Amino acid sequence: MTLNRLFKLQERGSSVRTEVIGGATTFITMAYIIVVNPAILSFAGIPAGPSTVATILTAVVGCLLMAFIANRPIAVAPYMGENAFIAFGLAAMGIGWQQRLGTVFVSGVIFLIITIFRVRSWLANSISTSMKHSFAVGIGLFLAFIGLYETGIVTSFVAGMPVEVVAHGAKFLPTPDVPVKIGNLHNPEVLLAIAGFLLMTVLLFRRVHGALLIGIAVTAAVGCMFGFGKMPTGVMAWPFGGEYNLGQIAFQLDISGVLRLSFLPVLLTLFLMSFLDTLGTLVGVGATGDMLDEKGNFPDIERPMVVDAMTCMFSGLVGTSTSGAYIESATGIREGARTGLASVVTAGLFTVSLFFIPLVTPLQHLRYAYGPALIAVGVLMIGSIRKINFDDLTELVPAFVTIVMMLFTYNIANGLTAGLVVYPIIKLAAGRWRELNAGTVVLSSLCLVYYLFGLPH
Fold first, then answer.
1. Which of 258, 293, 349, 407 is most buried, by the most CB atoms less than 10 A from its CB?
2. How far is CA 385 from the centre of its chain?
């Protein structure tokens, strides 16, 4: 069979049906990016219509590259976090969106160069096993927190307070001792989300194929039956004309304006955020699908990193933010996806959505349906905590710092950089400097420079 030979389905213990289910599940849990990414980038002055098309095209290209270059079931799309940095983090510098896109492209070029020379894989493989598995634990808890917040099971401390009080900030409302609180458990959508999570848990326990996808579909169907869904404003739209005309932003990037010394903190920040986000995601989803070797390394990691770099360059050219591997891929991997065929399915669904943007948009507001899947995957990913060395404080403390900083700063890169800075400090303090290698020192130094001269957020 052609697909079997092309994607090595039998060799990896998978099937066409499993890959299709996995790819569809990944698409559903990450399709919110179609709406969210353009909304965030609009604050940078990038028009939402063309930005929506650029977002989808980037996901299509990234997923196809991942399928045929790396043969991995890992979806690629514009990153959350990096898009906020592009939109809000650079606002104080007073630079236009053309230069911001130029920064994205230049970052991609740097990624590609250091990947070709195997610097990225050298740095990735220099990290200890405990630290790598702390990435998976942190990302799992991060996903669960996103799911809890998106569904309303957990909400902001200020939720429900009079807008006049909240709007005036600390003058009327001091910084709360508890930044989040339990949501409104009388809200039908919150109850739907809880029921959806329990349904997915039961299906996973019974090893039902497509458990997450079935749970999402059933929860969405029940919610829509009770009127908890918005009707689309239309069905189809031509994605390359009118309000969606990509010509407004494609190839409008300013590269020469970025190649200045004053832009070094911006490039350093994007470089480290994207590098560590990709590394953390690959290790996290790799642990979920038993793809890591005995040392916790992701085999042949250069291929997905090349894909990451190429897609990042494409992002800058087409008019969107830095792209890379998506943690939501773990949902498809939990459904059994093991090959690039799942990424082809995800790319295909993104391609279809390109022509149905008015129809797809309301679906992304069904947070009570896709949110529980993120919580369920978070539960499954924390199993990696067993591979952290709890008997060695020089391994446990940096792993702990990684996890808590990732979760409580709501930023994956913050957790990775903090843990990697702390790791050699603890080793040196314990008199165990011989356990450090050159890659660890280089990576730690880069992370320290990020905090000293970059733009952490």
1. 258
2. 20
Q: Which pLDDT does position 56 carry in this prediction? A: 95
The 3-state DSSP class for residue 78 equals strand
CA atoms within 13 A on the CB side of 404: 6
The reported pLDDT for the residue numbered 352 is 93
What interhelical angle do 412-429 and 393-408 show, nearest 10? 160
What is the rounded distance in angstroms from the CA atom of residue 347 to the CA atom of residue 149? 27
Separation of CA 279 from chain center: 11
Question: Distance between CA 18 and CA 396 in Å, rounded?
Answer: 37
The H-or-E segment that residue 256 falls in is none
Rounded CA-CA distance 82/413 in Å is 10
Decide: helix, strand or coil at residue 182. Answer: strand
**Closest by alpha carbon to 327, among 372, 374, 361, 262?**
374
Give the span between the Cα atoms of 353 and 24, in whole angstroms: 13
Q: Is 173 helix (H, G, I), strand (E, B) or coil?
A: coil
How confident is the model at residue 231, as a pLDDT? 63
Is-contact 253 101, C-beta < 8 A? yes
Longest alpha-carbon distance in the chain: 68
Residue 324 has phi, psi (to 5 degrees) of: 180, -175
Its pTM stands at: 0.76
Q: Which two tokens stand for residue 114?
A: 């250091």
The residue behind tokens 């809880």 is: 194
Q: Which two tokens stand for residue 447?
A: 């992370």
Residues of the chain with pLDDT under 50: none
Provide the pLDDT for residue 441. Answer: 93
Tokens of 124: 């990735």
Q: Which residue has the tokens 């603890």?
A: 426
- Residue 276, CA distances (Å) to 58, 81, 120, 273 in order: 20, 12, 10, 5
pLDDT score for 172 = 56
Rounded alpha-carbon distances, angstroms, from residue 65 to 306, 314, 406: 9, 11, 28
Say how far apart CA 249 and CA 447 lie, in whole Å: 32
